[in-house]
Amino acid sequence: MNGEVNGEEATAWAGGGEGWRSSVTFGYARVKGLRDHPIEDYHVARMQSFNGEEIGLFAVYDGHAGTEVASYLEQELFDKILADPNFRDDPKKTIKETYFSMDKRILGKAENEKDFRAGSTATTAFLLDGGSRLVVANVGDSRAILARNRKAVEVSVDHEPQKPEEREMVESKGGEVAVSPIGGVYRVDKRLNMTRAFGDYSIKEHLSVEPDIWDNILTDDDDFFVVASDGLWNVMSNDEAVEHVLAQTTAEGAAKVLAAAALRRGSRDDISVLVVCLKDLSSLS
Questions:
Q1: The pairing of beta strand 198-199 with beta strand 212-217
Q2: Prediction pTM value
Q3: Contact 40, 67 (CB under 8 A)
Q4: pLDDT (tens digit, 9 = 90+) per residue, 94-144?
Q5: Containing H/E element for 186?
Q6: Are 37 and 269 in contact (CB under 8 A)?
Q7: Which CATH topology does 3-159+211-283 take?
Q8: Burial call 72-84: b when 16+ CB within 10 Å, e when fewer
């Protein structure tokens, strides 16, 4: 098993936001799983100037049945969202509309390529207004949590077939939800273990790409957030992840520790972990 760990970065907020945060640090870790295929996890972690202020863009894209969709989202999704002139005034509406339009582009590509079967989760996080506002949108099962007063708050939704509302959605579209004889996992049309994703052309009519969106003003009670693929969450609870981060002094170190802990617990999937610190971690330990 091999891994890739990239370094921590820090930036000062600038521009016209009303936020109170002076700096944010973030780190990430990516580790290839035991399965016999190239790593299919992709991510984004960067600060970017937007309309005269600095914003934070963070995402995990966990691909399946190939890397084409996840890599495309890594390259294009944030740029398309920010290019919409309505983003600043109505980010939730813009994000939702762009999820749909990007999926349409992906499906158009799949129509022209016989062997195009790939799909991907997407969990995107936007730090806005000088770091005082966090918007998280997701499809699939790459989860985001926020540490508030040292306790985990889940700010994304795992779109799993066994959830009654998700199963009802699939069945209303003519799809089937059943337990796989291998591993006892619920799947859509005996194939996919999630109900919402980009791509997945062959069963798309039974899936959705409509994101769940969490939009909140951050306060001084909020410490950090974590975005990770299910390679982490399949073997670790939200509260355990928070405890691991609190025991570290840097965002990079926290991301590496989470990935290593998932490996020790037997995770076989690719693991991608982003840790974004809203405060100095050493002040929380």
A1: unpaired
A2: 0.92
A3: yes
A4: 999 999 999 999 999 888 876 688 999 999 999 999 999 999 999 999 999
A5: strand 186-188
A6: no
A7: Phosphatase 2c; domain 1 (3.60.40)
A8: bbbeebbebbbeb
